[in-house]
C-alpha cells in the first residue's frame, strides 16, 4: 500500500487559545482556514489543489479532479461513466446533487440480458458495449463548470489533458485489477491497445499514455457538452459501439441531460446528514438505517450486541432498497415514508437482541458476490470559502465494460449491470431487486453511491467511498464513528462489516469482527463470511469549526492522497 499524507492544520498553541478564540471565533465559524482535498490518486488531488491555488472554487476543483481521475484511475471512473456530485455552496447555503448517472440507451429492453431459456447472462451485462449506459460524466463536468465554477474548462481540464498526453506510471490497484479484467479487455482492440502492453497484462513500471482521451478532453474543453454528445466525438462513440454489437444512437447522446436533485436530509442524534437521493439508493438506505439505530443507545452496549443491531438495521434498509427503489423519473417511490421516523419505529419493533433476521426468515439462494476488484471512486473537497463537494463517480466494475470505441480513448461503463435483469438473480455485487429497477429505455439504473455531508454544532464532514453494494454500509459505519467523535483517520482505516439483506450473510474484512464477536453473532443465528480482500477506498475531509482545524484522510486500502493547505 502506498504511503498516505494525513495533515492536520490549524493547531493553536495552548497558552494563546483563549485570546485566539475570542478574536477569530466569528471568522472561523464562517469559513475554513484551509483548502482540503482527499481523492483516490495523488495526481488528482494535486490537480484539484492547483485549481484552488489559481483562484478556482471547490466546484472548479471538482471538475479538475473528476477529469484527472478519469485519466489516472481508469479502474474506477471515466468520461465513459457517470456519478453524483453533492454540492454545498457557502454563499447562499444551497445544497444540490448533480445527477450525472448513466441512462439505458433508447433501444435497451427489459430482457436484453436473458438468453432463450430466460437465464441471466451476466457476462453480457458487465463486458462489452451492450453493458454500457449512456455516459453522464462529461455533461456533469460541464454543468458544474457553467453553473457553479468560475474558471473556464480550458483551465480546469488542463491537468487531465496533460496527464493523458504525457502518461504516468500505473499503480498497484491498476496492476491487480487488470489481471482480473484481462479476458474482457483483450476483446476490445482499442482498449487492449491502451491498457495492455503488446496484448499482455502490463507489469510494474508500465506507463499509461492516452492520446485519444487527451483529444476527447480537449474537445470538451473547447466545445463543452457538444464536444462529446454531438459532432465527431459522438459519431465515433456511436459507430464504435454499434460495430461491436452495441445499441447506442446519436439520439441517445444528444438527449442525455444531467439533473439537479434535492439531497436527502436526515437527523441522527444531533447530526445533520445530507446524502444522495434516488436514483441512488444511498441516502434512503443510510437514513433508514440511522433512523432505526437512533432508537437504541449504542454506547453502553456490548460490541456483539452493537454490531448485531447495526447489521439488523442494514438488513432492513437494504431490503427496502431491493423492493422499492429505482429511477425517480420513471417510478414512484415511497421515499418520504421510507425515510420517516414513524416507519423506522415499525422496522425497529421486530429487531430482537437475541436473534438475527426477520420474524419469518427465508434462506437465501444468492451466493456472496466476489466484489474483490477495485471499482468506482470518491473525492471530497472543502475550500476556504466553505464550499463543499462530495463526489462519487463510477464506470461500475473495474475498467467498466473493458470496451473503448476506436479513436475516442473513452473506456465505457458497464453500469447496465446495476439494473435488475431477472428477479432473483443478483448483479455483480449480489444485489437483487424488482420492477422499480428493471431495464427501460432512457432509464437511470439504481446506484449505491453515497456522497455525504455530516454536520453537528462544531464539525462538518465530507465523505464517501467506492465499493459497490458495500458503499452505503461503509458510510453508515463512518457516520456512527463521527457520532462517537472519532478522528477521520480512524473512519477510513477501521476494518468493516456489511449486510445487504441478500445474501443473508454478514460479510466482514479481516479484523472487522473479533473471534468473540464472531462467536457471539453466530449464537444469534448470523451467517458470516470473511471477504478475501479488504474493501473500500474512503476519502474524508473534516472541518472542526470550533478550533479551526481541517483534517483530510485517505483510506489506506487504496492509492489515495489527502492534502490540506
Ligand atoms: N456502479 C455502482 C453503483 O452505482 O452503485
Order of strands in the sheet with most strands: 1-18-17-13-12-9-8
Spans of at least 5 consecutive residues whose pLDDT stays below 50 are 1-28
**How would a textbook summarize the main sheet?**
7 strands, antiparallel
Helical proportion, percent range: 25-40%
Structural class: alpha+beta
- Average pLDDT confidence is 93
Rounded to an integer in angstroms, the radius of gyration calculated over CA atoms is: 22 Å
Hetero groups bound?
A: glycine
Strand content: 5-15%
Count structural domains: 2
How many β-strand stretches? 19
Number of alpha- plus pi-helical segments: 20
Query: Distance N terminus to C terminus?
Result: 24 Å
Rough outline: globular
Question: What does it look like?
Answer:
It is a single chain. The protein is of the alpha+beta class and 565 residues long. The chain has two domains: 40-260 and 378-418, no CATH class; 281-370 and 466-564, Orthogonal Bundle (Serum Albumin, Chain A, Domain 1), CATH 1.10.246.130. It is built from 20 helices and 19 strands. The strands form four sheets. The protein has a seven-stranded antiparallel sheet. It has a seven-stranded antiparallel sheet with strand order 7-4-3-11-10-2-19, covered by helices on one side. It is globular, with a radius of gyration of 22 Å. The protein starts with 7 loop residues before the first strand and ends with a strand. Residues 1-28 have low confidence and may be disordered. The protein binds glycine (GLY).
Amino acid at each position: 500500500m502506498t504511503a498516505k499524507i494525513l495533515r492536520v492544520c490549524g493547531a493553536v498553541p495552548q497558552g494563546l487559545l483563549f485570546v485566539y478564540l475570542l478574536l477569530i471565533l466569528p471568522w472561523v465559524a464562517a469559513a475554513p482556514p484551509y483548502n482540503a482535498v482527499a481523492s483516490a490518486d495523488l495526481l488528482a488531488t494535486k490537480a484539484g489543489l492547483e485549481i484552488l491555488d489559481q483562484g478556482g472554487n471547490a466546484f472548479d476543483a471538482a471538475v479538475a479532479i473528476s477529469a484527472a481521475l478519469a485519466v489516472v484511475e481508469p479502474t474506477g471512473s471515466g468520461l465513459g461513466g457517470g456519478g453524483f456530485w453533492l454540492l454545498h455552496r457557502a454563499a447562499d447555503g444551497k445544497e444540490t446533487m448533480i445527477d450525472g448517472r448513466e441512462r439505458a440507451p433508447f433501444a435497451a429492453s427489459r430482457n436484453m440480458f436473458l438468453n432463450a431459456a430466460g437465464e441471466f447472462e451476466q457476462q453480457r451485462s458487465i463486458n462489452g458495449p451492450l453493458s454500457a449506459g449512456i455516459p453522464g460524466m462529461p455533461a456533469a463536468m460541464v454543468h458544474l463548470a457553467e453553473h457553479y465554477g468560475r474558471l473556464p474548462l480550458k483551465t480546469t481540464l488542463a491537468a487531465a489533458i496533460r496527464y493523458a498526453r504525457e502518461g504516468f506510471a500505473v499503480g498497484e490497484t491498476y496492476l491487480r485489477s487488470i489481471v482480473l479484467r484481462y479476458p474482457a479487455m483483450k476483446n476490445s482492440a482499442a482498449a487492449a491497445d491502451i491498457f495492455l502492453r503488446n496484448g499482455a497484462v502490463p507489469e510494474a513500471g508500465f506507463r499509461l499514455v492516452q492520446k485519444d482521451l487527451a483529444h476527447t478532453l480537449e474537445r470538451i474543453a473547447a466545445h463543452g457538452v457538444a464536444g462529446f454528445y454531438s459532432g465527431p466525438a459522438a459519431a465515433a462513440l456511436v459507430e464504435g459501439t454499434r460495430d461491436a454489437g452495441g445499441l447506442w444512437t446519436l439520439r441517445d447522446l444528444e438527449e442525455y441531460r444531467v439533473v439537479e436533485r434535492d439531497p436527502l436530509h436526515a437527523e441522527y442524534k444531533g447530526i445533520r446528514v445530507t446524502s444522495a437521493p434516488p436514483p441512488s439508493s444511498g441516502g434512503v438506505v443510510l437514513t433508514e438505517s440511522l433512523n432505526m439505530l437512533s432508537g437504541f443507545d449504542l454506547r453502553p452496549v456490548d460490541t456483539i450486541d452493537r454490531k448485531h443491531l447495526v447489521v439488523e438495521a442494514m438488513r432492513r434498509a437494504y431490503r427496502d432498497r431491493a423492493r422499492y427503489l429505482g429511477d425517480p423519473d420513471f417510478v414512484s417511490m415511497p421515499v418520504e415514508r421510507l425515510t420517516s421516523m414513524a416507519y423506522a419505529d415499525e422496522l425497529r419493533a421486530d429487531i430482537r437482541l437475541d436473534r438475527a433476521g426477520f420474524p419469518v426468515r427465508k434462506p437465501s439462494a444468492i451466493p456472496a458476490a466476489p466484489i474483490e476488484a477495485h471499482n468506482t471512486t470518491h473525492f471530497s473537497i472543502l475550500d476556504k470559502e466553505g464550499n463543499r463537494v462530495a463526489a462519487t463517480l463510477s464506470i461500475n466494475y473495474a475498467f467498466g465494460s473493458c470496451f473503448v470505441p476506436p479513436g475516442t480513448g473513452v473506456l465505457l461503463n458497464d453500469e447496465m449491470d446495476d439494473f435488475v435483469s431477472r428477479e432473483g438473480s443478483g448483479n455483480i455485487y449480489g444485489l437483487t431487486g424488482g420492477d422499480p429497477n428493471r431495464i427501460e429505455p432512457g432509464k437511470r439504473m439504481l446506484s449505491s453511491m453515497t456522497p455525504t455531508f455530516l454536520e453537528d454544532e462544531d464539525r462538518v464532514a465530507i465523505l464517501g467511498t467506492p465499493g459497490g453494494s458495500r458503499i452505503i454500509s461503509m458510510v453508515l459505519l463512518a457516520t456512527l464513528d463521527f457520532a462517537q467523535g472519532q478522528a477521520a483517520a480512524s473512519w477510513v482505516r477501521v476494518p468493516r462489516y456489511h449486510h445487504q439483506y441478500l445474501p443473508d450473510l454478514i460479510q466482514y474484512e479481516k479484523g472487522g469482527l473479533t473471534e468473540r464477536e464472531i462467536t457471539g453473532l453466530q449464537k444469534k443465528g448470523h451467517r458470516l463470511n470473511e471477504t478475501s480482500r479488504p474493501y473500500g477506498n474512503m476519502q474524508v475531509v473534516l472541518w472542526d469549526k470550533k478550533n479551526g482545524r481541517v483534517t483530510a484522510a485517505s483510506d489506506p486500502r487504496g492509492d489515495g492522497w489527502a492534502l490540506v493547505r
